[in-house]
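Can't paste images in this forum, so I'm doing it all in text. The chain is below; anyone willing to post the predicted structure tokens underneath?
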Amino acid sequence: MKDKIKETAARLFADKGYTSTSLREIAEAVGVTKAALYYHYPNKEAIFRAVVEDNFRNHLQQEITVTENSPDVWSALHNWALCNVRNAIDFPNTRRLIFFTLQGRFRNQIQIDFEPLIEQSFQSLVNIIKRGIAAREVRNDMEPELLASMIIPAVNGAIMGRQFRVNGEFDPENLTKQIIMFIKEGSSIQ
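Text version of the structure:
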């Protein structure tokens, strides 16, 4: 039941916004009473936080798994980016919800509460870059943290650009390949 509540709430929050979504609407969409929601969650904020936390944790685990099993730095970066692209396709409501959250009402609290997860994700990317520098596949005149800080918005921007500007489906593998070609062009040793 908790999963159904979270999935439904994620869709409603992403479609209508946190403030415009009521517990009554969530309950009706799930097909339960408001009292049943209160049995599982004390309030709307608790549902919201559960949605965000689940997505962060699951996504982080996927990032770690796909990058650790990559044979080289460019495969690891490709797999990291592909993980983000697929997450955006598989969980569009949750991803949109997190994006708006980080800009809105819960921004500071979410960053505080989930800072360890955000930092772990960032560090996994930094570690890939450091591995690439050590293997002489990535330029050593670039700070790994700064490069990671540029890669994240490049990936997220490409995802958002494809989602908002392209009708129909797009190929996540092709989008990821283009992202990595763009990154590789500026950061690899020539």
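The mean pLDDT is 83. The chain has one domain: 51-187.
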